[in-house]
Amino acid sequence: xxxxxxxxxxxxxxxxxxxxxxxxxxxxxxxxxxxxxxxxxxxxxxxxxxxxxxxxxxxxxxxxxxxxxxxxxxxxxxxxxxxxxxxxxxxxxxxxxxxxxxxxxxxxxxxxxxxxxxxxxxxxxxxxxxxxxxxxxxxxxxxxxxxxxxxxxxxxxxxxxxxxxxxxxxxxxxxxxxxxxxxxxxxxxxxxxxxxxxxxxxxxxxxxxxxxxxxxxxxxxxxxxxxxxxxxxxxxxxxxxxxxxxxxxxxxxxxxxxxxxxxxxxxxxxxxxxxxxxxxxxxxxxxxxxxxxxxxxxxx
Length: 300
Known about the structure:
- The chain has a single domain (63-279), classed as Orthogonal Bundle (MetI-like fold).
- It contains 13 helices and two strands; from the N terminus they run H-E-E-H-H-H-H-H-H-H-H-H-H-H-H.
- It has helices spanning 21-48, 63-70, 72-105, 108-119, 126-144, 152-176, 180-188, 193-204, 206-222, 225-230, 240-250, 254-276, 281-299, and strands at residues 50-52, 58-60.
- The protein has a two-stranded antiparallel ribbon.
- The longest helix is centred in the N-terminal third of the chain and has 34 residues, at 72-105.
């Protein structure tokens, strides 16, 4: 029996770097990214690990982190910020998912109208909107003889009101991309509406859920306008954003402020990493592509 061995040549593709008009158009974007994002971050890292002498020289130190970590009130402010942000995110998800699902499933004309109405509040400056709610709460306090400003309700309400559209938009975008054939297949296989929702619809719209959670939790955890305007002057609502602002502006101490901002950034990056683990759609797509490649090779 003769065996014929066919030699297989591995073709190596070399990437060629060519400067074209598209790359030239991206240069202003990269310069803007460098100026507004990377450069301030570099200064934050430098300030976080340095202190200045009386002569104006900088020296390396870890005392900035020690000041933050050794102060119990700062730890309480950080935990309170994360707790309020978590509550606001859960409320936005509970309200935003049904709204986003409804908007994503209706016809295009109605969807465009509702999308415009939903984002209409974002056309007004956020500070003006929060000040308007402070005035409304003040009037309600005088009418009903209750206390609203300076309560947990006022802070969480302000977060939900300001950030709810950021939860709805990515969810209804994911719902729009949802293939109705999956829902019909689940019903044909005998799945109930509840089981279809949790086993089919929610996993397929998970990228939108994760994007919404990220876009709500991170601004809520670092907000400084909402607790400042709706906190009623209560020191309990000195959240992490107000603490960083106090060091940078009021105390003129960017070193400790940068250390706090850097630690908060690390916590946020860890949160995003763990949140990304919930999204299995990329892994599933990759597995599907691998199966198609293997099947095509077998067929060949």
